[in-house]
Amino acid sequence: MTGNRPAPGPDIHMSLQPQPTAEAALSRLAVQARRDLEALGHPSSAWVRPVADALGRQVYDVVIVGAGQAGLIVGLALKREGIRNVLLLDRNPAGYEGPWDTFARMEVLRTPKTLVGAELGIPSLSVRSWFEARYGAEAWQQISWIPRRDWMDYLRWYRAIANLAIRNEVEVVGIAPLGKVLAIQTNTASGGAAVLARRIVIATGHDGGGVWAVPDMISDALPPHAYTHSNVPLDLAGLSGRRIGILGHGGSAFDAGLAALQAGAVSVDLCFRRARLPVVNPHHWLEWSAFLAHYRELDDRTRWNVGRHFDLEDQPPPRHTFDRASAEPRLRIHGHSAWREVAWNGAEIEVKTDYERFAFDFVICATGMHYGLERRPELTGVADKIALWADRFTPPPDEAHAELSKLPYLGRHFEFLEKHPGTAPWLPHIYAFNFSGFVSMGPVATSITGHRYGVPRLVRGITSSLFLEQADAVLPSLHAFAEPEINPDAATMYSPAAPDIAAK
Hints:
Mean pLDDT: 92
Shape: globular
Distance between the termini: 85 Å
Structural class: alpha/beta
Number of strands: 19
Largest sheet: 7 strands, mixed
Low-confidence stretches: 1-10
């Protein structure tokens, strides 16, 4: 069930050079991808009945909050199903959506190149086709993982092919019902405004369930300029010549350490409380089709304990990342080194563990996140109405997990459900296609390969909901349909003449 994992290979991605004909090849591929989308577009007619706003404002059929990889794929999938009145909102500048060119620091993706899902079954839209057009087929055969910046460049190309309506540098700060639609409150550099929608997809990636957390013992002890979290943008140039302390052992901890050294840091000490690094990555077990496709049909206790297992059994850093770190003498790894005391003496950071003392100039916390929908600005106005796992499932005492209980208990198609039935009937019109749904839905909203299974489920839920909402028009529309297949005059040519009754 786990499939074959790529063996460590040479980092040839470090020396990849586009082919001299790359620009022309990518242009031809774009033409082919658009042609394939058109060829596979039947039935192509838009079918959603428009909804009017009393003030004449536009009402979108679907607004997607987030224009990163998930938002783009969902937007294109909706478009292919005849839902065209779709708008994507993203807080980042155009071309910098998601983590890939903002705070992600890995050299290559953590998933092997063979994983698919973004292309929606169209080979010309795949990252493989894009990569081979840019670097050549031989280069694709030689890599095991897709370079991070190439993945972002692919998404920029994908965005152009998808041709979706996207507004960048727009932050969503709240949602409220407004008659038969939902009002999305937004902030931009020029002020706030409301965007109206019938359905909303929250495609906010790993941020969707809470906020990245810096331990209180660090934030309480240090001035803001002396620490950060690994999953936010960081001025790497400012780390040159400095001693860096990192708390955490996952991929983002190692990526941050390697990036700091590349930027000129003097040293990196990476500390974690475990006695040793985990060596088994349980996430590789997930990569089998039945699990990804049908996870939602499992009973509550099984889903709860799958989520609990993956929270308790941490994954190690990716193999290629760990190998690079092990070969770097300036990066020292310290197991069994929980930070017991953290202090700022006015010039440097003092850290004490059970066995050692450290002096740092800057601290990076790779310490995960604190869950809680009330922490999400886009859910202001609705968070307290959403059913959580704590509201729907009580595990045995030995299976309790306080953090997982804060995650939303989602319906079959990623929709939010009411905490108290009947109090917010519009709530299932909002869909959580992000990491907050991993206990309810499995890892299909934020993983590349998971999109192959998660996107169709989400889209089917939205199309079904909108279709049933206009079910009253089905029979009248059918009865009113009068588009002739052949010329009406020609049809009368084959009717017998009526008898001349008067003559008889």
